Inverse folding.
């Protein structure tokens, strides 16, 4: 276990070690994305002074929600080491189903929403069945889904063309409603910061009581401080426009809840276990087929929810609602944010970071009135960079482990 | 040694296992008593790991009967074996690379309240267990992918000893270990025997086998090929039984008589 040789060797090993761990770890692994995001914002702000205006940032915070919901689901599938190419089509299918039921067939909104979301869940079950039970590679199953569910959506939409949503309806309100009272945004910022601090502090106390090493309190103080700065700055900016967007609130709540599920529950542990070693998980008695299926169900359910937000944003559903870059953006967001394509590493926060990067690029490009061609090229480059970092950290970990 | 009247901890008979065209196990029988160390030896591909997986419920037998402390049981899934108190260290370790040491130790049997993990208690027990086994792991919160081969093996071994197993199966547990750590594992095997556990130890190192085992069971091409008392059997006899150099009815008979 001890490393023979001079202290230089030991120092180098320790450095390589911490570096590998940082690349591989959860929160510290997001440092490159955060820096990248700041760089993108700085560049666009220099090119166009409206970029960091409250209006643009507020719009950005609503624009990220639809794709962000899709990315949240994709993260579950990536964590178990699979892929889901159908999320774009499923989001379109769910919103089409909702719109036809509600607008055209006159069903009340709540049941129409529930049916749209459950339709996503059922689709995920089908994908999971063919992948986990029959054993067809997820790539092919969800590619079939990409075509098939898109076809089903066209079929449902068939005679209706474009369906305009009721602009006073629940779905329309998802992205139209703002808590204009300035207290709302600040309250959320305060609640988030206090929540983080109290959980962390309670953890420290429990660990001390049990006699296990704790994270130094200084780290907690530092993180709480950083979180407070970001949260209150965001609240300030949002309040300078129309206040806290309902969509953003829902997105953050879902993100935090899913983060808790992944990191703190036995279910989340099973998801990670599958990504780290299917055979090991199986031998530990984990029902691999079920956990894998559930990941696809999460993915499709979140895609359906995301579809409703996307429909809400344009207040309509049409046959062109499903664009190919929606799928690409959802997967790219998860990966850019730091969730590994190799399975077993990642967190829900990567959905937020990744989608912020992608939407920032889109919004910056739109502001400057450049062609979308440029946007695609930039986003492609960023995605490639993210995948390279992912692969290198994956390899560094392996290499170190075998040494 | 166990009293003659006590039923064996585990008794297998007539175990068959086939993988496609490969008949991995043919009519295998094996008895393990509490407080005994049985070494399972045989050439590469003899079926040792397959037998371990059959007992662990990972690759259930095609046919065969299993008795646990005198009662017939069915082991069809890993959970069945876990509930009986059978713990296994697999040859390939079966660790989840991305999980930390604590996560791997408790994988599949996490401490939780209404589905919420009790990380603090799991970490406390992990540290306590590693301390009693005098295992040094730099950081139990580190993903096991970043540990050395030997450290990973010690993690896999401690994983098997968590909880209160009655039978511990170790599939080449010392393969990646240094001299010191190998000695520690052999000491550990002896401690398990003293605590009255049954131990099934697979090893290619006959020196180790002679040092700790009470009995040696030989597998050859998926069949039983002798069962020897370590104290009265020479290494040459075991070797010839493994390689089949003197594979005939007489030696098998002698071996059986030694067993009774
Ligand atoms: N999952 C499997 N699929 C197909 N064949 C298998 C499988 N597992 C084992 N076998 C075959 O069964 C036979 C016994 O393999 P096993 O792993 O039990 O050998 P072993 O005695 O443990 O060998 P070693 O000393 O090399 O570990 C081999 O011929 C092997 O190829
Ligand atoms: Mg083997």
């Amino acid at each position: 276990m001890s490393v023979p040789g001079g202290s230089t060797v030991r120092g180098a090993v320790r450095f390589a070690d911490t570096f590998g761990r940082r690349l591989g770890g959860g929160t510290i692994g997001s440092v490159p994305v955060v820096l990248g995001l700041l760089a993108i914002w700085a560049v666009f702000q220099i090119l166009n002074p409206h970029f960091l205006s409250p209006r643009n940032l507020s719009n950005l915070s609503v624009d990220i929600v639809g794709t962000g919901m899709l990315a949240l689901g994709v993260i579950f599938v990536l964590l178990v080491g699979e892929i889901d190419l159908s999320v774009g089509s499923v989001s379109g299918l769910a919103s089409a189903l909702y719109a036809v039921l509600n607008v055209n067939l006159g069903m009340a909104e709540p049941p129409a929403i529930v049916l749209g979301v459950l339709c996503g869940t059922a689709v995920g079950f089908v994908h999971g069945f063919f992948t986990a039970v029959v054993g067809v590679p997820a790539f092919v199953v969800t590619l079939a889904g990409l075509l098939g569910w898109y076809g089903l959506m066209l079929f449902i939409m068939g005679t209706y063309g474009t369906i305009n949503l009721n602009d006073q309806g629940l779905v329309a309100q998802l992205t139209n409603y703002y808590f204009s009272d300035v207290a709302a945004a600040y309250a959320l910022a305060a609640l988030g910061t206090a929540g983080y601090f109290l959980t962390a502090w309670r953890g420290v106390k429990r660990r001390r009581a049990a006699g296990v090493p704790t994270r130094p309190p200084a780290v907690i103080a530092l993180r709480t401080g950083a979180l407070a700065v970001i949260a209150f700055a965001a609240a300030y900016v949002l309040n300078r426009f129309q206040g806290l967007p309902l969509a953003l609130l829902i997105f953050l709540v879902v993100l935090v809840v899913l983060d808790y599920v992944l990191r703190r529950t036995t279910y989340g542990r099973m998801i990670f276990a599958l990504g780290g070693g299917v055979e090991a998980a199986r031998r530990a008695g984990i029902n691999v087929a079920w956990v894998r299926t559930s990941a696809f169900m999460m993915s499709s359910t979140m895609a359906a929810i995301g579809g409703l937000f996307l429909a809400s944003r344009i207040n309509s559903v049409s046959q062109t609602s499903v664009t190919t870059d929606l799928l690409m953006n959802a997967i790219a967001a998860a990966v850019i944010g730091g969730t590994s394509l190799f399975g077993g590493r990642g967190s829900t926060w990567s959905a937020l970071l990744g989608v912020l990067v992608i939407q920032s690029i889109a919004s910056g490009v739109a502001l400057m009135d450049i062609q979308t061609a440029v946007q695609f090229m930039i986003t492609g480059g960023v995605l490639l960079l993210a995948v390279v970092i992912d692969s290198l950290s994956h390899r560094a970990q392996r290499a170190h482990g075998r040494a | 040694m166990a009293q003659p009247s006590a039923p064996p901890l585990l008794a297998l008979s007539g175990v068959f296992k086939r993988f496609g065209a490969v008949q991995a196990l043919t009519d295998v029988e094996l008895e393990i008593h509490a407080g005994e160390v049985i070494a399972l030896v045989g050439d590469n591909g003899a079926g040792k790991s397959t037998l371990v997986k059959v007992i662990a419920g990972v690759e259930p037998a095609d046919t065969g009967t299993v008795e646990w402390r005198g009662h017939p049981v069915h082991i069809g899934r890993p959970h069945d074996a876990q509930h009986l108190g059978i713990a296994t260290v697999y040859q390939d370790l079966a660790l989840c690379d991305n999980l930390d040491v604590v996560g791997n130790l408790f994988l599949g049997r996490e401490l939780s309240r209404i589905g919420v993990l009790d990380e603090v208690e799991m970490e406390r027990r992990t540290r306590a267990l590693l301390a009693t086994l005098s295992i040094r792991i730099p950081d139990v919160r580190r993903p096991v992918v970043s540990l050395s081969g030997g450290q990973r093996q010690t993690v896999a071994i401690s994983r098997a000893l968590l909880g209160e197993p009655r039978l511990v199966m170790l599939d080449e547990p010392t393969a990646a270990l240094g001299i010191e750590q190998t000695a520690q594992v052999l000491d550990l095997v002896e401690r398990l025997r003293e605590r009255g556990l049954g131990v099934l130890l697979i090893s290619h190192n006959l020196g180790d086998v002679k040092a700790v085992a009470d009995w040696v069971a030989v597998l050859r091409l998926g069949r039983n090929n002798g069962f020897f008392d370590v104290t009265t059997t020479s290494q040459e006899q075991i070797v010839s039984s493994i390689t089949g150099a003197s594979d005939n009815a007489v030696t098998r008979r002698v071996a059986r008589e030694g067993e009774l």
User: Anything to note?
Assistant: The pocket of magnesium ion (ligand 2) is lined by residues B 48-49, 91, 171 (CB under 6 Å). Chain A is about 75% helix and 0% strand. The first strand of chain A starts at residue 163 and ends at 164. Confidence is low (pLDDT under 50) at residues 1-9, 11-17, 19-28 of chain A.
